[in-house]
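To illustrate the input format used throughout this study, we show a single complete record. The first block contains the structure-token representation of the backbone; no residue identities are included at this stage. The design step must infer an amino acid for every position from geometry alone.
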């Protein structure tokens, strides 16, 4: 049941909520009690660790984190907090700390900038004097920051095991293989027809590896975010008959459906099946080929949760992220990016009730920041993004104190041959304008 919890307004920390559950002091539920332990307890396990992505398959080549020195594993929350502050004070303008919206409170409070992945990559551009950019997010975000920052700036991911299970679902070898199969069906993929349209334009969500962004850049494609997906699809449809959209099938389907593309013209591409599991005729007729990827955090939200929220909170405003499944987006009052969700709450003039379908750290922070509203997560189970959760304050303290000692650890660097085309795909996104604006 959705209880109007006083906890978020007083203490937005998901860590504290988890500890209360484990200690039996809270009646809330969690998806994994071992979340209350430090991530170093599961860094060596084969999967993503406890949390929303724990059932997802981790790729064999995914980066691994080495052992964190015991001093950081054993330090109390207060001690880590003090050490992080002291290291930041010593480093001054030499370092900038970026915190994603989905990070735990104990990390976000040290961030110089808080935002979504692209806002943070751009925020790094505002600090050209910083020698190090410590990105408290996941691996693809650090790669994007590396693409956009100066070559002499080191981008640091405090825990290298903080990947993104959705980004990892689009493997570069599988995508290259898909592209070859599409060339067999459609003919040369770089040849425009008499109308000036190529057979298919690749579009990747920001939540993808630099290798995928590079693939897209090399093949006439573009990157999108959850804020500009419609604009980017318009850009792609003005250049091609079809779009190959990856990795998130839900963002692709929800956006294309809202633009009027029929569902039967959006086949799913399963990389483990020949022709992605479709017939040649279905691929010929397709408008959007949806890669078989998803976010395990946003897949937790259901139509049943929305019905329950409406039954228990008459007048509730339900807003979900477009990474949620289509039925959930259809049943909600609104769907939008994290920036949209934050703006909707900030702009509500009357005290209101909001049920939000996105990651719980952000929802609890919003509830604490807006005590005039009642704000709760649609999913009553406390279940953060497993991979974001890898960035414990212990890792943040470690990378900062290493910088103080003159050592750069956990640097994320994109190889030059990948970086150049990946930047092209990002530049195309920045240049794409909504149809109405460009008309
Ligand atoms: S919330 Fe989903 S898309 Fe975002 S980092 Fe976690 S798994 Fe990836």
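Output of the design step:
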């Amino acid at each position: 049941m959705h209880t109007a919890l006083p906890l978020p307004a007083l203490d937005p920390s998901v860590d504290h909520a988890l500890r209360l559950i484990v200690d039996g002091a809270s009646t809330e539920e969690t998806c994994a009690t071992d979340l209350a332990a430090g991530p170093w307890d599961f860094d060596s396990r084969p999967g993503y660790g406890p949390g929303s992505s724990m059932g997802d398959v981790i790729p064999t080549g995914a980066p691994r984190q080495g052992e964190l020195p015991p001093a950081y594993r054993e330090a109390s929350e207060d001690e880590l907090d003090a050490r992080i502050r002291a290291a930041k004070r010593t480093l001054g303008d030499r370092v900038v700390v970026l915190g994603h919206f989905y990070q735990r409170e104990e990390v976000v409070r040290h961030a110089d900038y808080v935002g979504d992945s692209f806002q943070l990559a751009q925020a790094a551009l505002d600090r050209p004097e910083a020698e190090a950019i410590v990105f408290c997010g996941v691996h693809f975000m650090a790669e994007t920051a590396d693409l956009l920052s100066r070559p002499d700036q080191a981008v640091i991911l405090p825990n290298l095991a903080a990947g993104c299970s959705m980004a990892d679902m689009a493997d570069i070898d599988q995508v290259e293989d898909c592209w070859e199969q599409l060339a067999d069906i459609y003919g040369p993929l770089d040849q425009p027809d008499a109308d000036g349209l190529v057979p298919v334009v690749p579009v990747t969500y920001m939540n993808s590896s630099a290798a995928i962004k590079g693939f897209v850049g090399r093949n006439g494609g573009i990157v999108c975010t959850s804020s500009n997906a419609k604009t980017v699809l318009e850009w792609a449809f003005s250049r091609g008959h079809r779009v190959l959209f990856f990795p998130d099938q839900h963002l692709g389907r929800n956006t294309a459906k809202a633009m009027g593309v029929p569902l039967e013209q959006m086949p799913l591409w399963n990389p483990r099946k020949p022709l992605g599991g479709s017939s040649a005729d279905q691929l010929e007729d397709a408008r959007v080929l949806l890669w078989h990827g998803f976010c395990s955090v946003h897949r937790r939200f259901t139509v049943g949760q929305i019905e329950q929220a409406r039954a228990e909170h008459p007048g509730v405003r339900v807003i979900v992220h477009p990474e949620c499944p289509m039925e959930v987006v259809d049943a909600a009052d609104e769907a939008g990016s994290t920036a949209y969700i934050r703006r909707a709450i900030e702009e509500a003039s009357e005290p209101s009730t909001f049920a939000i379908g996105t990651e719980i750290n952000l929802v609890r922070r919003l509830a604490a920041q807006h005590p005039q509203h009642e704000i709760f997560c649609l999913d009553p189970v406390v279940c953060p993004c497993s991979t974001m959760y890898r960035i414990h304050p212990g890792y943040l303290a470690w990378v900062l104190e290493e910088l103080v000692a003159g050592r750069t650890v956990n640097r994320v660097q994109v190889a030059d041959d990948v970086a150049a085309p990946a930047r092209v795909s990002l530049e195309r996104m920045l240049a794409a304008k909504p149809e109405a604006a460009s008309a």
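Structural context for interpreting the output: The pocket of iron/sulfur cluster is lined by residues 53, 102, 138, 164-166, 207, 295-297, 359, 385, 387-388 (CB under 6 Å). The chain has three domains: 7-30+298-382, 70-164+390-419, 170-293.
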